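stage 2 :: seqdesign
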């Protein structure tokens, strides 16, 4: 494909009109979507409807990959709650990655990005997949810039949005546009939101209401998946070791842990040569902080739309919500650095049923089609 598709651009501009002033944009979202807080926008990347439309077009463009088949939407599909439905994401040439592709819905409320939190902003995050071998598979970002600069339509659009000439277009402009689009992927108005914040006490079923009590009390879920007085993100944006994936690390304990500990004491970088890509991925937050206390820790995901964004956990190892509830009920997977908040819950069968009903009540109306008929 040598030219930018006119149909793709027409699709991109059919977005809800967002006001360019940050505080007005925030106010509009806060009043229209029940259950979410105002959206923060960086002062150096103000939202405009033109920039958002450009970001959507870039998000959908498959030319930004080694084989011309992978766009951002490949793993974050709009018709699949911005996930891919796979346990482990697959990229260019069908290469298998090392982690599950999380939903991008409400990603604007995260304070760090990727499962291990290695990027601090949506703009930083957007640049990474292009040059990851098992994602877009490019050797560098020059390919992206070449496509943009040589396309018959992109240069004019970048000129209107950023005021730059074709030669001055850089990856900062590309990632700002993509991040602007991703900041519009906001959803609330679930049955829970209407019940908790909208005053509609008929919005949730009796089972879901009981399940919310389990969630907040015996289930201990609310400690990490937070519910506030005026809104709920269902994440604390922190990192925890649940034991997920520990079996992949078990063969390197304790010998490799002693070596890691020694490298920390000697203030030198760890030697990863003996680890496979999967094992290194399972080190989690440690890869970012180099702190032994962060071994196997991963970021708390939002639970909004959780019923339609499986498989679950950073490695996609749990296929259903029932498996997730059972996993927590059993106290995770025992390991030397399991977080203290993970312990056997001893839920009754009715409590598990009610908790599942509550989790399904976190689905926003626009994504309810993903719920199976027998679970609505």
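stage 2 :: out
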């Amino acid at each position: 494909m040598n030219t930018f598709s006119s149909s793709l651009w027409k699709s991109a501009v059919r977005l809800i009109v967002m006001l360019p002033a940050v505080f007005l944009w925030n106010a509009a979202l806060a009043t229209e979507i029940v259950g979410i807080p105002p959206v923060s926008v960086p002062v150096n990347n103000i939202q405009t409807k033109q920039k958002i439309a450009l970001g959507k077009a870039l998000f959908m463009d498959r030319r930004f990959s080694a084989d011309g088949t992978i766009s951002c939407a490949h793993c974050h599909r709009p018709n699949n709650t911005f996930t891919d439905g796979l346990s482990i994401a697959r990229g260019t040439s069908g290469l298998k990655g090392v982690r599950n592709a999380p939903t991008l819905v409400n990603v604007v409320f995260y304070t760090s990005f990727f499962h291990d939190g290695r990027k601090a902003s949506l703009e930083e995050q957007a640049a990474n997949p292009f040059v990851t071998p098992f994602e877009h598979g490019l050797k560098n970002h020059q390919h992206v810039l070449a496509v943009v600069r040589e396309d018959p339509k992109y240069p004019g659009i970048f000129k209107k949005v950023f005021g730059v000439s074709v030669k001055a277009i850089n990856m900062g402009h590309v990632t700002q546009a993509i991040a602007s689009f991703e900041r519009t992927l906001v959803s609330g108005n679930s049955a829970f939101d209407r019940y908790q914040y909208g005053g509609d006490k008929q919005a949730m079923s009796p089972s879901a209401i009981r399940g919310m009590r389990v969630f907040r009390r015996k289930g201990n879920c609310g400690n990490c998946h937070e519910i506030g007085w005026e809104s709920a993100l269902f994440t604390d944006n922190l990192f925890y070791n649940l034991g997920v994936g520990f079996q992949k690390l078990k063969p390197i304990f304790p010998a490799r842990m002693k070596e890691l500990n020694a490298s920390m004491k000697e203030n030198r970088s760890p030697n990863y040569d003996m680890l496979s890509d999967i094992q290194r991925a399972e080190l989690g937050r440690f890869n970012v902080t180099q702190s032994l206390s962060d071994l196997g820790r991963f970021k708390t995901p939002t639970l909004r739309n959780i019923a339609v964004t499986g498989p679950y956990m950073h490695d996609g190892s749990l296929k259903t919500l029932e498996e997730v509830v059972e996993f927590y009920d059993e106290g995770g997977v025992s390991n030397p650095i399991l977080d203290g908040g993970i312990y056997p819950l001893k839920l009754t069968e009715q409590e598990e049923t009610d908790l599942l009903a509550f989790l399904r009540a976190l689905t926003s109306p626009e994504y309810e089609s993903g719920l199976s008929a027998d679970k609505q």
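stage 3 :: structure notes
- Strands lie at 239-240, 298-299.
- The first strand starts at residue 239 and ends at 240.
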